[in-house]
Write a structure and sequence with these properties.
The complex is a heterodimer of chains A (about 325) and B (about 290).
Chain A (H helix, E strand, L loop, with lengths): L1 H16 L9 H8 L5 H36 L11 H14 L9 H21 L5 H25 L5 H10 L7 H20 L1 H7 L3 H6 L4 H23 L5 H13 L3 H25 L8 H19 L1 H8 L1
Helix pairs in contact in A: 1-3, 1-13, 2-3, 3-8, 3-11, 3-12, 3-13, 4-5, 4-6, 4-11, 5-6, 5-11, 6-7, 8-11, 9-13, 12-13
Chain B lengths: L1 H15 L10 E3 L2 H10 L5 E3 L13 H4 L9 H6 L4 E5 L4 H9 L4 E4 L5 H14 L6 H18 L6 E6 L3 E2 L5 H8 L3 E2 L10 E2 L2 H7 L3 E4 L9 H4 L4 H6 L5 E3 L2 H4 L6 H18 L8
Parallel strand pairs in B: 1-2, 1-3, 3-4, 5-7, 5-9, 9-10
Antiparallel strand pairs in B: 5-6, 6-8
Helix pairs in contact in B: 2-6, 6-7, 7-13
The chains are: A mainly alpha (about 325), B alpha/beta (about 290).
Pfam families (chain A): FecCD
Keywords (chain A): Cell membrane, Membrane, Transmembrane, Transmembrane helix, Transport
GO cellular component, one term (chain A): plasma membrane
């Protein structure tokens, strides 16, 4: 029931996002233009500029929320999220290297493929470093190190490429934005996002069993090693595909599952879909907000998600301080 | 070997030409636009170094010529080591470098961004005087004036609205070289209609809504090299602005004010004539 309500909220936000933009269009005009009426500029604005943007916000927000919920389930830790572990930053690095070395242009399939490979490598390294019984301190430290490394690598790769507009392009990759994307971008990202989501959802029962503890799950027939690999692959596919067209957008994956828990409970399997819906709703809302906040140049949506996400992260730490202190020592 | 012979020949020729006695002998340019001017107007043996982008053919009009000279970092360090008696810089870039050089007693000549064809002519005169060859300015200015006259003759009678848009939707506004060039070819800059009289970033939506008759771009690459360039191949723009509605002038002809403007004007005039005669692309009705 709660899931249906969340999906409804997300759908409403997706429709609202078609109405937001620098050119003021009335709801009637937007509806007309969406279904092929209206003037040609209006149709182009709604169908080719705002629609792909809404689709991307929906898909990327959903996969980030889903990845966060899956990682938190896998590690049985509420502070896990792709961004905190450096996966989006690594994906951005992979994509940038492909562009900077001239192997591919900015609209090629090599981009998401490289992003996915880099995201997979980073999450894999992270979990390898953290070991089986993921110690939170090690996870967070390793994640911090990986994301700092990937961020620096991204900036360096853009600098080394013969691109006179490096500063602008670096900001894009590090802060993330959905501005003026097209259906070419949707085609680039969506297949990978769907594949990642399918993998994560297919493993939901194993994640539920894992919440009983690793040994209990083993004895109940869950291959924990396989599950781990599957979740990493799902997260890497989804996050890599997303980052290749949007740059790094952080904290959606951290926040979404936490908002879902009070409504759904703590079952990792049942959390997946609602987390995806909340992730999509959050990114849609943030992407509407960056278009409504008056500013001379566009605000990057990644900036907004970080501004909301980081205080939330701090709040989580304060709330769970006692438990964390125990876990950290 | 050939290059060496050429360099020797240039040296002989340049020595033969009279030069003001107090003319600078070691000029370092740390700005792409002053690179173009000094390459055009100074003797080869006067140039001690050029800016980092001087050899980038996409931006630098004289990229090939620039290869004969040392490429500097654009910073103060190698500029000082070159012991210049004149450093050429832009007025709005590398403030710290300029301050440092001045503090070390190096004469620094700063050039404004050229905002019109007249500005550019003025800069040619100033550079020619600076390098001790004031007489070299006039032939270049005459060439620009001739191109201006040709552009006026070919100028559009219908004054279509053109939006000069570059990567990430940057639009060149009112007082700019681009507006000046457009005006010379009888075209109206659509930036003013969009509230971007002084230039700025235009969203894709705003461009589609304003619906200029043509867009002026710097290239027609369909494989964008980064997300900033990807904007120019966005399906929304491709649909409204197929090749027939795009005018193209490479960046190296419009980034700076200088002798390359003659080429820019001729190219623009040719494209206007082509559009006028074909009549295949009428102005958008509004």
């Amino acid at each position: 029931m709660a899931t249906l309500a969340l999906i409804a909220v997300t759908a409403v936000l997706a429709v609202l996002s078609l109405g937001a933009g620098p050119v003021a269009l009335s709801p009637d005009t937007v509806t007309a233009a969406l279904f092929g009426a209206g003037t040609e500029p209006q149709r182009i604005i709604v169908q080719e500029i705002r629609l792909p943007r809404a689709v991307l916000a929906l898909a990327i927000g959903a996969i980030l929320g889903l990845s966060g919920a899956a990682l938190q389930g896998l590690l049985r830790n509420p502070l896990a999220s792709p961004a905190l572990f450096g996966a989006p930053q690594a994906a951005a690095f992979g994509a940038v290297v492909v562009i900077a070395t001239g192997l591919a242009d900015a609209l090629s399939f090599a981009l998401p493929v490289a992003a996915i490979a880099a995201a997979f490598a980073s999450v894999f390294v992270l979990l390898a470093v953290a070991g089986r019984n993921a110690n939170l301190l090690i996870l967070i430290l390793a994640g911090l190190a990986l994301s700092a490394l990937a961020g620096a690598g991204t900036a360096l790769a853009v600098n080394l490429a013969p691109n006179p507009y490096a500063a602008l392009e670096i900001t894009f990759w590090l802060l993330g934005s959905l501005e003026d994307r097209s259906f070419q971008h949707v085609a680039l990202a969506l297949p990978f996002i769907l594949a990642g989501a399918a993998i994560l959802l297919a493993n939901r029962n194993a994640l539920r069993t894992l919440s009983l503890g690793e040994e209990a799950a083993q004895s109940l027939g869950v291959d924990v090693g396989r599950l781990r690999l599957a979740v990493i692959a799902g997260v890497a596919l989804g996050v890599g595909g997303a980052v290749a067209v949007s740059g790094t957008i952080g904290f959606i994956g951290l926040v979404a599952p936490h908002l879902a828990r009070p409504l759904i409970g703590h079952d990792p399997a049942r959390l997946l879909l609602p987390s995806a819906a909340i992730g999509a709703a959050l990114l849609l809302a943030a992407d509407i907000a960056v278009r409504l906040i008056p500013a001379t140049t566009d605000i990057k949506v990644g900036v907004l998600t970080a501004i909301i996400g980081v205080p939330f992260f701090l709040y989580l730490i304060v709330r769970d301080r006692r438990a964390l202190t125990g876990g950290l020592s | 070997m050939i290059r060496l012979v050429a360099a020797c020949a240039m040296l002989v020729v340049s020595l033969a030409v009279a030069r003001a006695a107090d003319a600078p002998r070691r000029i370092v340019s740390i700005n792409l636009c002053t690179d173009q001017l000094v390459l055009t107007l100074a003797d080869a043996d006067q140039i001690a170094g050029l800016s980092p982008y001087s050899r980038d053919a996409s931006q630098s009009w004289l990229a090939k010529e620039a290869r004969a000279f040392p490429k500097m970092s654009g910073g103060a360090e190698d500029a000082l080591v070159a012991e210049p008696d004149l450093v050429l810089a832009g007025r709005y870039t590398r403030l710290a470098t300029r301050q440092l050089l001045k503090a070390k007693g190096v004469p620094v000549a700063e050039f404004d961004v050229a905002r019109s064809i007249d500005d550019a002519k003025e800069q040619i005169r100033r550079m020619a005087a600076l390098v001790g060859h004031p007489e070299r300015a006039e032939p270049h200015i005459a060439r620009i004036d001739a191109a201006l006259a040709r552009a006026h003759a070919a100028a559009s009678r219908t004054h279509p609205r053109v939006l000069a848009v570059s990567r990430r939707g940057w639009v060149f506004g009112g007082e700019s070289l681009t507006t000046s060039l457009l005006g010379a070819a009888g075209l109206a800059n659509a930036a003013g209609d969009m509230g971007l009289a002084h230039g700025g970033f235009a969203s894709l939506e705003a461009i589609v809504m304003a619906r200029p008759d043509f867009i002026l771009v710097t290239n027609v690459r369909d494989r964008p090299q980064d997300q900033g360039e990807a904007l120019l191949v966005h399906p929304a723009l491709q649909k409204l602005y197929p090749l027939a509605r795009r005018m193209v002038i490479p960046e190296r002809l419009t980034t700076c004010g200088g002798p390359m403007l003659a080429e820019a004007l001729d190219s623009l005039a040719a494209q206007v004539s082509a559009v006028e005669t074909s009549k295949a692309t009428p102005a958008f009705s509004r």
